[in-house]
């Protein structure tokens, strides 16, 4: 993208204005300070980050934002300020106001609901509230993948450790914010999800994963969000140390910003540096030099959160860097264009100077409260309840005492600024009290949790806290008295005293129960679900994902059976529930076109969006009709087909789809795919079992086949993703399929067909062998072709040829004849993009705007087979070029034919392993 000064407002030629636009700064205080006024008026600061230290209430926030915009307007700013804050929900909110601003679950809590739709609704509600008080940008969504989730400080701020799940929920949240009128900033690129911490506060956290590992995991959500229209990206302040990259500070490195983010991932939005005031960065390099390095690396906005002196130093440093020629005006203009484009999407002076304020918030509040309750209720997750202790209303007698043990924890992460507001402080105003109740410290929240439990138990509640001092005599006495014990943990993997305390209490309860005393133990993780996720000794384990008051209210109602918790664990934690999930059988239903077509199309689009980048998705271009062959088969005699779905009967959403066909004595699975967000829940297993059962009931069945050419959507196990392919092969091997002798199938392409030329000497070599090639259309001479295909290919290939011969306007068959006796020695189908076959071979639509097809070469083994194949392909290419196609697709060739065709200039577009299975080896175990 080039940016000349002529394309920009003349004002931006002024170096001071241009520099001011490239900074993103914060300040201390709940009112406009002389320092922030100076930055806006004299230094032309264009973007501001507000935090908890600036915000007391919705009304105050709206007034503060309006005043900041008014100062900018009066100072001659041509466009409004970009004003942003963090509002991740859960424990990380910059703005609290219980009268107007709703509390929603953390990112991981929302993912626990299992509903990307709910993620959109929550983000949209959050965005609308911010928009009402004049905020035009949110620092979100968090797109980090918790690769080493158990020990990472991000915790529930991130969705989880599954890249596809993080993508799905991150994009849903992003769209929710954008539809509310708020621009988005993904964070923390390239990832804070697997950092090594070396100790002191000046040590920079380090990413040690290789670029290949990052590409397969951590970068997936960032890449997918960029593809879906992410507005801005925050580049983190971390080091990267691996074989291919040695970077001290990611946001100061052109390898990270320009090469990885811009060039490799294709991001052209606004890039924002991590705060340059962070100790590890400012002490290592210095703010003045760091600012120049950040801009040189490709950052458009440089973030400085707090110190006015440091902010002035950064401004002078950037000015000096430009004057010294280290940074060109063209580089500055490029950032200006990106920033101005971003502002044009989210603000105007009319909007900035007139926030809708509390009137708008009042109209939204009731609906948002209902949404908050719904989201928290759906997020509560019971991971294990081996003793069937829940709900407590069914297992506790009226006279039983319930003991609540809670840890002493720090205030919620975004509430640190309120530590001075003591709950029992005398002389508090009513406004202070209202503000306090929204943002209680952990201890205050747990005290209120105790009160709520006491109300449920009519006073039969004992409550005390525990610390790093372990199990004390007071705890032992209370445990002896109580019939049931609830232990609260919050990040026990990083607060190890909680882990030790809980295990000690669990042992005591076990011993007391063995001695005849009733001791029910329920452990509730109120932050990271990883605390006791894998510890089977904790028989009843509940997760809430944050410890806000709203979360604790939902917990109480769940514990006492006011609703049945339906939350699920994120990512690999869900996969780890094999004790429960592996035996789960989903209801598999037969495909109903009228009922399921729309759901299947939505499922196809979801799988397509979540496919790895730079890898062709076999489902690209497919529709619900692509799997139905009966519509074109005369009377349905040539093929029998049965398709199956797992669906949500309430919403009509499809969770998984499987298509099966029966040609002659061969049963085939033509496609088997599951919603990426629903994988590892046995949906695929249930579909596979149902499909196999249906095929094995066919009389005379001799062979089972995974993958087929008609419909040519999935030709088998995709080979593009080696790790995923290996996992799928193991899965199918466990179900009786032969993975040791697969048939390798490839879809090839020539992308720049008009400029393609045959390799030197190829045409002369083919002519020397004296094979006769001709092109036929329609039914004339079709019998010899069909006999040739019937003798040398599978039944689905025969049906493909029949369809091609019936479509004489858009298809033809090239024949190769022996010079000795005129017998056919090879055939191939050629077609235009508009052929009816494209319905069943969606690659013809998805591979480009103007595609010519060469389909299903059938060339028996012989000494001249490779030359016959090249001759057939040459005629196919020639016909495609004559029809003015830009791209040629050859769908499909077998493994031994691939190299022959690659030498002609074809490239591999897609690759599969077609598997087979003998009926007597098929596994139908559950």
From TrEMBL:
One of its GO terms (biological process) is peptidoglycan turnover. Residues 33-341 form the Glycoside hydrolase family 3 N-terminal domain. Residues 421-435 have a biased composition (Basic and acidic residues). The keyword Repeat does not apply. GO terms for molecular function: hydrolase activity, hydrolyzing O-glycosyl compounds. Gene3D superfamilies: 3.40.630.30, Glycoside hydrolase family 3 C-terminal domain (3.40.50.1700), Glycoside hydrolase, family 3, N-terminal domain (3.20.20.300). Pfam families: Glyco_hydro_3. Belongs to the glycosyl hydrolase 3 family. Keywords: Glycoprotein, Glycosidase, Hydrolase. It comes from Glarea lozoyensis (strain ATCC 20868 / MF5171). This is (Trans)glycosidase. Residues 417-437 are annotated as: Disordered.
């Amino acid at each position: 993208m080039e940016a000349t000064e002529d394309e920009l407002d003349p004002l931006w030629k002024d170096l001071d204005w241009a520099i001011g636009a490239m900074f993103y700064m914060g300040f201390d205080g709940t009112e406009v300070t002389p320092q922030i006024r100076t930055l806006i008026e004299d230094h032309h600061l264009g973007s501001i980050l507000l935090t908890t230290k600036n915000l007391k209430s919705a009304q105050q926030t709206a007034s503060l934002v309006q005043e900041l915009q008014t100062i900018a307007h009066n100072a001659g700013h041509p466009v409004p300020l970009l004003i942003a804050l963090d509002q991740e929900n859960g424990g990380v909110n910059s703005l609290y106001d219980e009268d107007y601003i709703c509390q929603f679950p953390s990112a991981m809590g929302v993912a626990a609901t299992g509903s990307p739709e709910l993620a959109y609704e929550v983000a949209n509600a959050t965005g609308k509230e911010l928009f009402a008080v004049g905020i035009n940008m949110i620092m979100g969504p968090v797109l980090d993948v918790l690769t080493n989730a158990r020990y990472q400080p991000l915790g529930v701020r991130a969705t989880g450790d599954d890249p596809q799940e993080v993508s799905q929920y991150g994009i849903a949240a992003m769209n929710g914010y954008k539809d509310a009128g708020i621009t988005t900033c993904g964070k923390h690129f390239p990832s804070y999800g697997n950092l090594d911490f070396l100790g002191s506060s000046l040590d920079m956290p380090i990413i040690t994963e290789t670029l290949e590992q990052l590409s397969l995991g951590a970068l997936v959500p960032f890449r997918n969000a960029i593809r879906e229209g992410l507005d801005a990206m925050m580049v983190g302040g971390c080091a990267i140390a691996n074989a291919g990259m040695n970077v001290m500070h990611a946001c100061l490195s052109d390898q990270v910003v320009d090469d990885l983010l811009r060039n490799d991932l294709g991001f052209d939005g606004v890039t924002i540096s991590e705060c340059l005031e962070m100790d590890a960065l400012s002490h290592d390099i210095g703010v003045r030099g760091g600012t120049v390095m950040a801009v040189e690396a490709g950052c458009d906005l440089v973030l400085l959160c707090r110190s006015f002196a440091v902010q002035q130093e950064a401004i002078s440093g950037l000015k000096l860097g430009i004057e010294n020629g280290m940074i060109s005006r063209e580089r500055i203009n490029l950032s200006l264009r990106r920033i101005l484009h971003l502002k044009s999407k989210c603000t105007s002076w009319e909007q900035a100077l007139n926030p809708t304020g509390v009137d708008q918030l009042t109209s939204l509040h009731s609906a948002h409260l209902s949404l908050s309750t719904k989201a928290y209720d759906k997020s509560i997750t019971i991971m294990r309840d081996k003793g069937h202790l829940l709900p407590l209303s069914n297992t506790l007698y009226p006279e039983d005492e319930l003991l609540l043990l809670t840890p002493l924890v720090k205030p919620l992460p975004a509430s640190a600024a309120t530590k001075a507001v003591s709950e029992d402080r005398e002389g508090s105003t009513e406004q202070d009290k209202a503000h306090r109740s929204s943002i209680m410290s952990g201890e205050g929240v747990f005290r209120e949790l105790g009160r709520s439990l006491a109300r449920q138990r009519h006073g039969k509640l004992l409550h005390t806290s525990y610390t790093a001092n372990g199990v004390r005599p007071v705890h032992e006495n209370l445990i002896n008295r109580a019939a049931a014990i609830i232990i609260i943990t919050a990040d026990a993997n990083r607060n190890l005293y909680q882990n030790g305390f809980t295990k000690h209490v669990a042992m005591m309860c076990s011993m007391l129960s063995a001695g005849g005393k009733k001791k029910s133990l329920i452990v509730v993780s109120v932050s990271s679900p990883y605390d006791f996720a894998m510890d089977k000794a904790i028989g009843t384990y509940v997760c809430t994902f944050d410890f806000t008051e709203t979360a604790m209210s939902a917990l109480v109602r769940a514990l006492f059976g006011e609703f049945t918790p339906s939350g699920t664990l994120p990512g690999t934690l869900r996969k780890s529930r094999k004790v429960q999930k592996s035996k789960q059988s989903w209801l598999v239903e037969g495909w109903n076109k009228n009922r399921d077509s729309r759901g299947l199309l939505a499922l196809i689009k979801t799988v397509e969006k979540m496919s790895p980048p730079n890898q062709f998705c076999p489902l690209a271009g497919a529709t619900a009709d692509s799997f139905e062959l009966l519509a074109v088969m005369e009377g349905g005699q040539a093929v029998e087909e049965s398709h199956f779905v797992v669906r949500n009967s309430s919403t009509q959403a499809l969770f998984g789809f499987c298509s099966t066909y029966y040609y002659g004595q061969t049963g085939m699975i033509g496609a088997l795919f599951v919603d990426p967000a629903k994988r590892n829940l046995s949906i695929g297993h249930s579909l596979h079992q149902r499909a196999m059962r249906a095929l094995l009931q066919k009389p005379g069945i001799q062979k089972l086949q995974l993958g087929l050419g008609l419909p040519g959507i999935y030709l088998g196990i995709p080979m593009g993703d080696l790790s995923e392919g290996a996992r799928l092969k193991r899965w199918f091997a466990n179900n009786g399929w032969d993975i040791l002798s697969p048939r390798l199938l490839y879809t090839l392409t020539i992308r720049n067909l008009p400029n393609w030329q045959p390799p030197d000497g190829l045409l002369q070599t083919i002519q020397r062998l004296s094979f006769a090639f001709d092109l036929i259309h329609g039914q004339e001479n079709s019998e010899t072709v069909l006999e040739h295909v019937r003798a040398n290919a599978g039944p689905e290939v025969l049906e493909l040829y029949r369809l091609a011969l019936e479509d004489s306007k858009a298809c033809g068959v090239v024949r190769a004849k022996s010079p000795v006796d005129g017998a056919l020695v090879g055939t191939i189908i050629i077609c235009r993009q508009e052929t009816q076959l494209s319905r069943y071979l969606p690659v013809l639509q998805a591979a480009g705007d103007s595609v010519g097809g060469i389909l299903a070469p059938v060339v028996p083994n012989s000494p001249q087979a490779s030359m016959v194949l090249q001759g057939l392909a040459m005629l196919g290419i020639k016909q495609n070029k004559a029809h003015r196609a830009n791209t040629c697709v050859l769908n499909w060739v077998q493994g031994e034919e691939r190299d022959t065709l690659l030498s002609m200039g074809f490239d591999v577009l897609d690759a599969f392993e077609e598997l087979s299975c003998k009926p007597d080896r098929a596994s139908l175990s559950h």
